[in-house]
From TrEMBL:
It is found in: Membrane. The chain crosses the membrane at residues 12-32, 52-69, 81-99, 105-124, 136-159, 171-191, 203-225, 237-255, 276-302, 314-332, 339-360, 372-391, 403-428, 492-513. Keywords: Membrane, Transmembrane, Transmembrane helix, Transport. InterPro entries: MFS_trans_sf. SUPFAM superfamilies: MFS general substrate transporter (SSF103473). It is a multi-pass membrane protein. GO terms for cellular component: membrane. This is MFS transporter. Coiled coil: none annotated. Signal peptide: none annotated. It comes from Flavobacterium faecale. It comes from the Bacteria.
Amino acid sequence: MDNQGIFKSWVPNWVAIMVLFICLLHSMILLGVYSSNVTYAASFLDIEAEDLQFAMSVTYGTLLATILIESRFSSFFPTKNYLMAVFSLLAMTIVVSAYVSNFFFFLFLRIFEGILMALPVITIRQLLIERFKSKNAIIIGFSFYYGSLLLATPFIMNIAVWFLDRYDWKYMLYVSGMLHVLNVSLIMLTFKGHRITKKIPLYQINWASYFLVLTSIISGAYFFVYAEKKYWFESSQLITALIVCMVTGGLFMFKELSVKRPSFDFDVWKYANLRIGFLLFFLFYISRATLGLCHAAMFSIWNWDPARVAEVQFINGFGNIIGLVLASLLLMRSVAVKLIFMVGFTLLAIFHFWFTFLFVADVSLADIIIPYTLQGIGVGLLFVPLILYTTSSVPTKLAVSSGIVGVAGRFWGSTIGFCIIQNAVVFLNKKHFFKLSQFVTPENTTAQETIMKSSQSFVSKGYTVDDANELALKRIFSTVTKQATLLSDMEIFTAMGYALVVLIVLMGFNQHLKQNFNLFKSKVWIS
């Protein structure tokens, strides 16, 4: 891609970098505006948390599928007109979603947003990389882009808390739409209108493969997101979704393997580094899913207000920045990716073991700040090296396919990670609640004394004896529920910590993660 002259003559390089980076933040907005405010967004749409998770999976899954055909659109239209059109449509779509109360129509908008989210990313990211006059341009560009994605949740959540204290939820969406209008204005002001790629006709787009893989992704996401809620294979809907996923996925594979110029080349799986990278991405996202349990504990166990939880997430974001900077420096110095991976996953293991002892009735910010920061550093340290490792070991002709594999690892890791954590929480909560509630019996003098004291406190406040006894029972069972949650979180974090230790040991013995692997002599996915 030749971007020489894409910016007007008066635009200095630092302004061009700033404009491109601002334009990349649309991904942060689309991924963060709902994921960072699950409770508010779910209540606004009158849906449950699983529904919102599925809607987010639909957006990311659509992005994954759209990468197959993205290059055809970006090559057909002049860059300036193409980007302005995409960001204009995004602005309108987000504003329209502020008036949508029907969940199915909301899902349709999320599919459309997923398409629009995928279309400008590779073009803008490549333009950004080429603005850095350095042999490390790819590392810098990737760190900028993926750093913004990692910081999406704390950044958007803090904005949301401020807005929701003063305005209605809709104003969050209005502001999100206006930020895309800002992108349009910046592009109009700084870009020239000429073409930077060779024009390729649109009539050869492989629509059949696109719709097959999109259907497979969405139906697979539906199965995993709703698995616990609908009791797995007891639900005919889940069975149907799994069958559709497998059939359409199989048809996609058959079609791609049978054509001369496939949209996705399955030869990419012949490369060991790519297979290992996909697996590591998958496991990495599953390990990240436990962070939601920390935030849930802040709300429901430690009773922190939303503003405080939002501010605390900046600590984790600060750790992300430290990790990204460290990863960039290590990559620039050609430090072995095997060592980077082992250090990053070790930090995640330490976080899980440390936090196991913090799931108690009450903690202070000083208690969690170190492990919470270590988790951020570990995530930041792993993200970009994982992307480069996964995509850099294949020939240039397979670059797009290797990039799709990387995105697929992130998508399925986050989706299945949500499923695993959700099922583990429900199962363990039921087990511990049943065990603990067995102690709340007439024969247990300690429990009866606690109920009596609680009942007397309610009577002293003016409640009748019957109402006081009922409230006292509710209070003690609320305590039992919290204790069951804490015990469940401890077990999950302990299990995840040991799983990460096993992964680190296996990486230590893996022959494909070679110490002398040099990223700077490899070809990476740029377009």
